Amino acid sequence: MKKTKAFFRSMTVMGKRAPIYLLAILGMSVCFAMFSVMGSLLMKQVVDIAPTGEYRQLLISVCVIVCAGFLSLLLYRACTIVYNVEAKRVFGQLSSEVLDEELHLPYAYYEKHHSGELISKISYDLTRMGDIYGSRFRRVVMPIIEVIVFLVPMFIFCWQLTLCLIFVNCVILFADMLMVNPIHQTNKKLSAINKSMTEHMSDIIQGMVTIRMFRTGKRKLDIAVACNDEYYKTNKSYIIKSSTLESITMGCDLLCILFFLLIGIYFVNQGITTLGALAGIYTMYGKFSKQFLMIGKYIPELSACIANAENIFEFLDEEREPENWYADHTSDTNHNMNENLTENDACALQVKNINFAYEKEQQVLKDFSLTIMQNECVAITGPSGCGKTTLSKLILGLYPVESGDIYVNGKSIRKSPLSQVRSDIAYVPQDAYLFNATIEENIRYGKENATDEEVERAAKMANAHEFIMATSDGYHTMIQEGGVNLSGGQRQRIAIARAIISAAPIILLDEATSALDSDSEYKVNQALKNIQGKRTIVMIAHRPSTIRMADRVITI
Hints:
It is built from 18 helices and nine strands. The chain is an alpha/beta fold. The strands form two sheets. It has a five-stranded parallel sheet with strand order 6-7-8-3-9, sandwiched between helices. A four-stranded antiparallel sheet has the order 2-1-4-5. Strand 4 and strand 5 form a beta hairpin. The radius of gyration is 34 Å and the shape is elongated. The two termini are 46 Å apart.
């Protein structure tokens, strides 16, 4: 994405309130500049009128100028408040858009991208993009507007001297602009390295035990350290370039003042301008020159933040999961086959002649079918890699089938929105995730408005009530991140309670007992027996004890 396109798109994020934001910056710039202009006018009046002895006229001029200056300060403060409110608002809006995008991306995106990449976008790219609204854009626009405001009285005082000053400052500005692309590219590199660093740190935190137990784990630490060193070197390069730019700006500022004094004295001696006009221009010139040179300093900094905006917009442009994969039939490569499929209301789940492959040359499921009746408990088994977990993903609508159809409670997933399909299925994965909240809140994720009695009843059916009551605060016990303060069997039983309370007619368990010890597996299986015959249970399993409790076994 080109820098210019990314910049204008970042402005459109503000929507209808963009004019308020821009007008606030305009008001800040004009009022702040006018305060300096008032000071220059005051200086000119004193130098020109004082020698004449017309003190009454001088007093009137001073009073008018001071009042105008005070008014400009009040307006500046009001515009500043509006600006800050709008900048915070748009950053909050942008953050919401990024979060909303994360929630609506296809499951395949998360399987292909590291979690650290997403964290990096939020913690680094999004924050840096927010700087566009909070400071960087204003710092570019305000100097431009202030320079224009300063030029009006400067041209009135002495247009010849003003043109000379503009020429010199333009030459310096051109030199500063040469740093725009190097700083932009360096910041893009910093963003990429930060993403890599976040990925490695995420791996280290989640795999801490593995890293400690195996000598080769040190290699992961070495990679992270090397990545950190690269970030340090690149950031050092960024700092050097930014410091060089600032040094050039400050050095040129000193040269501009020297040039002004030399040519100003010459114009006064030649009678081109008056001493009062020269004093007035001199009072403004310091700020005029500084603001002019700030344009060259802040444009590269704005460009650096635009590099982060490009990353955010690329993320926001990722294709979202549709409400229905098959709305336009783009995923149906054999639509004629589906014309012969019929719905069966007596079946909880029907899979008919489906074909699916992650990659075209690697067919996972080919012409596969199964039928599961209402309230039936079915175990699906097969060797590793045969497509058991893939089948669960297709039933949940995480991927579209290439051909064939799936019926959930008699309704084709081709004709039903994904939200409806998923509301009919409660999913319990092999390693169920528990949130950093109370046990009660984790169970209630299955049904937000569930009563305390419903939560307790679901926990009892899931064979979890006894151990919950044995914890320090019962149902109000806080679960640490990922449920590390609970055993695997306890986590699974809470997940089953969450599935039970959802009242979904189908419960789908994907290897829910494969990682448990025999005692935990027994308790989880007892929980499943409590709901057997009351819900349709589909178990993807390989443990004999779990398979034996099923009414029927389907082998892929």
